[in-house]
Amino acid sequence: MAITAVRRGVRRQSRVRVRVRGLTRPRGRGRRGALLGAALALLAAGAVAGPPARAAEGAPLWFDGRTATEVSADGIRFTDGHGREVVLRGFNVSGETKLEENGGLPFADAADARASATALRSLTGGNAVRFLLSWAHAEPEPGKVDTGYLDRATEQITALLDAGLRVFPDFHQDLFSRHLFHKDSWYTGDGAPRWAVEAGGYPVESCGVCVLWGQNITQNQAVKNATRDFWTNRVLTVGTSGGVRSVPVQDAFLDTAQKTMAHLAGRLTEDRFAGIVGFDPYNEPYAGEYATGQNSRTWERDTLWPFYERFRARMDLAGWRDKPLFAEPNMFWNSNLDLARQEGGLLDAGALGKRYVFNTHFYDQKAISGVFMWGKAKDGQYTGDLGTVRDRAEALDTPAIVSEFGHPLSGYTSDKAPTVDKAMYQALDTRLPGSTWWTQPARSGPVLSAAQWQWDIYSGRHREAMNGNSDKILTAADAWNDEDLSAVALDSSGRAVLRQDARLLDRLYPGAVAGRTLAFSYEDRSRDAGTVLTWNRVPATMPSTARLVGDGRYGVLVWRSEGATRAPTQLHLPSGFTPSSATVVSDLGTVTGPPDYTASGRTADHPIASALEPGTTDARRLLLSAPAAADGAGTLHYALVADGSAAPSAELRASAQRELAAWVAGAGFPVAP
User: Fold this and answer.
1) Residue 243 class from Cβ within 10 Å (0-12 exposed, 13-18 middle, 19+ buried)?
2) Residues 131, 261: Cα–Cα separation, whole Å
């Protein structure tokens, strides 16, 4: 999961019932607090296959479908086939893959995958997921890929694609492999198959005085040795049905990855395959042990990056040439504990271009520890941390994605979760704290793509025999090393419901922008217990705008047209931003209750309209269409979107429009790249 060394509410009820095995499983609480140990260790060391969205009269929307769904890297941003800037937002699906109960897959079957995807789209408006895969299950015997496992994975990915979600698969590992751990161990891992561990001849796993599971990364000699052997491509002697073979362990992994990717490419239709964004080769890479004279930076340069180049070549051979590799640096490169941070961030990789994406995780190790940060997160808490992610992506000339972030939802630091997660989403949206966003919006920066850890519909209902021990059946929370981070669970009737404030998770965000985003901020008014968290207040110098927003939720987007597409700018509308009451104030006009989108050919009948999200029956999006005559390259556009907590008059909307126009004109936004 995420920075494994340290880490790790409801919108309207989903009407979808999620069919799941074991609905009567007990909700045991189990042991908690497996997160502080990692800190100690560090210090010690448009939709594809689903039916297209339709206009009011029933005709398909012209800009949806494969062209909208297909995503590529374009400089420091993702773009779709229309040339619109794309933001990917969603969840990891899911930590269930790290368990054995569903055979190394996120779901018991495709039906559960469909129900989970529908709930994710309905309850959060997410448009992308990181889909976890297991090397151990893909290659249970050396050189023999389990096509049945890959078929089941393909079926589950298909269900997600058909719900309008984009997918990037991830061969996941934590602590290298569960097969390193004996049946009575306090800890477990996931990743490599049994044969690779048995052939390695590793010492009996022991973390010594470890308090929590993350310490195994730097203190468990078995984990360190196995990880080191993977990166050095140690040749293992393994027994097979055809006799004894010599198997370089990294080569075996690359062979399996290539066959997995080829399997997916061959069994997904072309339209569905368009929804596959790329591939994440290896979760949270770390050397295990550095060679003599080696450090974190030289390890990235001489070991990790050549691995990515080898994986990139396998992607090309498997039919993934046009999809980027999601390259993650040394997992400790952006630790927010100074004594734990290691130099890295692919500093010596040069410009990556469209063949790669800068892929990183971020967790507040200080907050998770319960020792290094007292109190709650505050406005702007992580803008510097995620600003560093933006800076590295710009230096690498590639898009960035934060493919894991989050905070525990139970345990002695869980009271921090509402503020920590709000501050993380804030920093994904903008470089600026709310206190300075209105006065310095030109410094806001690009909106980051991200996937929260995690989305597991079986949360609290597992039945996992830890390390194969039938006397240690785990049911509570994530059923994995005492973690509890799933944003979703099933209620007593089997419906998927959010475990965190829906105002936090169901967010306004720019899914597709016809041009380049210059500034974005969303005030979600999420709650910390009974306290409303308001970090971005409209300034007193804009009284009409402040009055229009009131105490409701609102977001502001400023973008610069590049004159290259007539496809509309698209923002997800959270629950409560209903078509009948949401208010939009923009240079394109003002409206309360945007009408359904209709068009004459490719010309929108209304510059401000709404429509269903592709692949859904209740999630909606706002569509902003600038008339061609007023949308030349370099034209600045803006839109304030409020949730309709009050019904503003046309006069108030017009006054707010004048204030916003003056604010944009005086903010110093560039009109050219």
Assistant:
1) exposed
2) 13
pLDDT at 452: 98
Pairing of strands 473-474, 464-465: antiparallel
Question: In 3-state terms, what secondary structure has residue 670?
Answer: coil
| pLDDT for the residue numbered 91 | 98
CB-CB contact of 73 with 398 (8 Å): yes
Q: 583 CB contacts (<8 Å, ≥6 apart)?
A: 548, 590, 591, 592, 641, 642, 644, 648, 653
Query: Beta strands 128-133 and 166-171: pairing type?
Result: parallel
Cα–Cα distance for residue pair 604/627, rounded to 1 Å: 8
Tokens standing for residue 333: 């490169």
H/E segment holding residue 490? strand 488-490
Do 428 and 415 contact (CB within 8 A), yes or no? no
- pLDDT number for residue 339: 86
* CA–CA separation, 673 and 517 (whole Å): 11
Cα 561 from Cα 624, distance rounded (Å): 12
The answer to whether the peptide bond before residue 94 is cis (omega within 30 degrees of 0) is yes
pLDDT of residue 661: 98
Task: Write out the DSSP string of 64-106.
Answer: -SHHHH-EEEETTEEEETTS-EE--EEEEE-GGGGSTTTTSSS
Q: Classify 29 in phi/psi space as left (phi over 0), alpha (psi -120 to 50) or beta.
A: alpha
Q: Cβ(260)–Cβ(145) under 8 Å?
A: yes
Provide the pLDDT for residue 645: 75
248: which strand partners?
235
Q: Are 106 and 156 in contact (CB under 8 A)?
A: yes
CA distances from 3 to 37, 175, 361, 533 (A): 12, 12, 7, 27
Q: What is the DSSP letter of 507?
A: -
pLDDT score for 3: 38
Q: Are 394 and 437 in contact (CB under 8 A)?
A: no
Residue with tokens 């794309």: 86
Q: How many CA atoms lie within 13 A of 460 on its CB side?
A: 17
How crowded is residue 409: how many other Cβ atoms within 10 Å of its Cβ?
21
Q: Is 669 in a helix, a strand, or coil?
A: coil
Our CA dihedral for 166, 167, 168, 169, rounded to 10 degrees, sits at 180
Question: What local confidence, expressed as pLDDT, does residue 39 receive?
Answer: 39
Beta bridge partners of residue 465, listed in sequence order? 473
**3 state SS of 247:** strand
- Whether the CA torsion 429, 431, 433, 439 is positive or negative: it is negative
Beta strand 569-573 pairing with 166-171: unpaired
> Measured in Å, how far apart are the chain's first and last C-alpha atoms?
37
Q: Which residues pair with 79 in a beta bridge?
A: 72, 85
Q: How many helices (H) and strands (E) does the chain have?
A: 19, 29
3-state secondary structure of 289: coil
pTM strictly above 0.70 = yes
Q: Which residues of the chain have pLDDT under 50?
A: 2-59
Residue corresponding to tokens 């690009």:
446
Phi then psi for residue 308, to 5 deg, are: -65, -35
Tokens of 500: 């965190």
What pLDDT score was predicted for residue 350? Answer: 96
